[in-house]
Amino acid sequence: NVSLCLSGSSNRRPGIRHSTFESLRLGRSGQSIASGFLRFWDSLNFKKDREFVQITILFLDEKINSVIHGFTPVERANHYMPSLKAGSIVKVDRFEVTRCSNMYKITDHSFLLRFISLTIIDGVITGAPEINLDRSTISK
C-alpha cells in the first residue's frame, strides 16, 4: 500500500491550474492534470514479432477510484521514460485527450491521454491535491 498526501506550499508557479479527469475536454490544448502515477508498462504488438508500440500509463485522479490511462507514442518513449516513477504524484501539461476505443479500454473512463511533442511531466513535491494511492481501494 502506498498513500501519498502532499500539501502545504507549492513549488508550482502561482496561478497554474489543473483539471480533474471529469473536466477534461477532447482535443489538444493547454490542459493540465495533477494526478497519482500508478504504473506503466511497455505495450507490444504480438502480431508483429513483439514490436514495441508505446508506453501505457495509469493515472489516478483526486477522486478515489477515478483512473484514466494514457500513452506515449513509440517515438517519444525515451524522452518520457526518466519522468515515469510509479507511486509519484505528477503534473502533466499539454496533451491530447481522445475517446477511448472499447477495443483497447483498460479503465472505466471514456477518455485517454495521448502525450504529444509538447507534453511536459513534472514531479509535484508540495502543494498537490490530496491523492490516495492505496492500491487496495482501486477496483480491478
TrEMBL record:
It comes from the Eukaryota. CDD domains: RPA1_DBD_A_like. It holds the Pfam family DUF223. Signal peptide: none annotated. InterPro entries: NA-bd_OB-fold, RFA1B/D_OB_1st. Residues 36-121 form the Replication protein A 70 kDa DNA-binding subunit B/D first OB fold domain. This is Replication protein A 70 kDa DNA-binding subunit B/D first OB fold domain-containing protein.
